[in-house]
Design a protein that fits this description.
α5 crosses α6 and α6 crosses α8. The protein is 61% helix and 8% strand. With 186 residues, it is mostly helical.
């Protein structure tokens, strides 16, 4: 089994893609398919992309398929229905952060233009589901196999720390507001 996903600007577009891909699929069946896709292994290092899309009221469609041929067909169907690919979503996400990260790095003596690739790898590594909330030194050995050349560089470490800070801010803004004193419970 394999998974592939697409991100849509609206629920209507996503529903159209689901209807075209699987006529008669009901909400419960779609929910079961998503749960199954998590069990099958949506890449943990891409979860932040899905979460960011959902945070911005976009819709995510995940296709669970049997083989590479079906995965290619699913990607084609999603693209044909107007879905943004994960690669495109990742680039747009980084474009939205790049200027702030460049300014931060420059202010703190970093050479962002020279080190952007390493910095970004560290930033994205921090958002991997296995690394969230964990300091760099605690995961450094775990990062080595995936980022053999980059993980020990100063730019990667700074990117990792900024990614952790970004994630913490996202979590903080996602928390519900405290209840108003005297208001009935939700």
């Amino acid at each position: 089994m394999q998974t592939t996903a697409g991100i849509f600007r609206t629920r209507r577009e996503a529903a159209g893609a689901l209807g075209a891909a699987a006529p008669g699929t009901a909400g419960a069946a779609a929910g079961r398919a998503f749960e199954r896709s998590l069990d099958l292994g949506l890449p943990k290092d891409e979860l932040y992309l899905y979460e960011e899309a959902l945070r911005h009221s976009r819709s995510v469609v995940v296709a669970v398929v049997e083989d590479a041929g079906q995965a290619a067909a699913a990607r084609e169907a999603l693209a044909g229905a107007g879905a943004e690919s994960l690669d495109a979503a990742r680039e747009q996400w980084w474009i939205g952060l790049r200027d702030v990260e460049r300014e931060h790095e420059t202010r703190h003596g970093g050479a962002f233009d020279r080190d952007e690739r390493l910095y970004r790898q560290g930033f994205e590594a921090a958002l991997d589901g296995e690394h969230r909330g964990r300091p760099y030194e605690a995961v450094r050995a775990h990062l080595q196999p995936r980022y053999p050349e980059a993980h020990a560089t100063e730019a990667f470490r700074r990117g990792y720390e900024r990614g952790q800070a970004w994630w913490a801010r996202c979590c903080e803004t996602a928390r519900p507001a405290p209840p108003t004193p005297g208001a009935p419970p939700p």
